[in-house]
Amino acid sequence: NRITWGDIERIAFPLLLHYPSAEIFRYPGGNFKENRLFNDICSFFDHIIPAYFFDALMALTGRKRIMVRIYEKLHRATGALEWFTTREWKFSANNVLMLIDQLKGVDKETFHFDIRDLHWPTYWEDYVLGSRKYILKEDNSSLPKARSNLRRMYLMHKLIGFLIMYGIWHRFLLRTHAARRLWLLLSSLVMKLFSILPAIANT
Q: Superkingdom of this entry's organism (predicted)?
C-alpha cells in the first residue's frame, strides 16, 4: 500500500484547509520541492523575510519578538528529518504477511493490521482531526470560526501579493503611456473588489 510525498500533498493539504486551526498566523501554503536550491530560495522569501518583518512590527509596538525563533526551530526540525524525507524507502512486509496468514477466525477480526486495507484519505483525515483535537486542543465546535478566520487570511494573503506586485509594477513598468492606462484600469477594478471585501469576509 505505497504512498508518496506527492500523495500526502494531494490528500492532506486540502484537509488542512477544510479543518483549519483557529490560531493560524498566516494562510497555509507551499509544496514539496525536488531541488534544494529552489527550496532554500522559497524558504528565504516565504519564511525568513516575513518572520523578520513580523518581529520588526512587534518591536515597534513594544511586544515580544517570536517569529524568527519559531521559524528557526521549524527549520532545525525539518533539517533533522531531511535525510529520511528526501529518500525513497521500501520495507519488506513478509513477516507481517506471514502473521496475518496465521491468524484465524475471531483473532483475525480482532487484530486486523493488514496495511493493504488501509485507506489513505481516511487515515489522513483522522490524522488531521486528531492533531487538531489532541495536540492543538481545539474542539470541532470551533471549526466555523476557524474557517471564517481562514477566509480572512486568504484575503490578506492575496492583498499582500497584490501590494508586492504593485511595487514591482510601479518601480519598473510604469514608464510608458500604455502601461499607465492599463494600470488605471486595473486600479479601478481593484478598488471595486476592495469595496466588497468586508461582505465576503463576513460570510
A: Eukaryota
At 111, the amino acid letter reads F
Taking the model in full, what pTM does it have?
0.70
> Could you state, in order of their start, the residue ranges of all structural domains in the chain?
142-203
Stated length of the chain: 203
Q: What is the Cα–Cα distance from 144 to 4, expressed in whole angstroms?
A: 31
Residues 6+ apart with CB under 8 A from 153: 24, 26, 27
Grid cell at residue 84: 529520511
Mean pLDDT, consecutive 10-residue stretches, the chain (203 aa), reads: 87 92 83 84 84 86 86 87 85 87 86 86 94 91 91 85 74 66 74 67 57
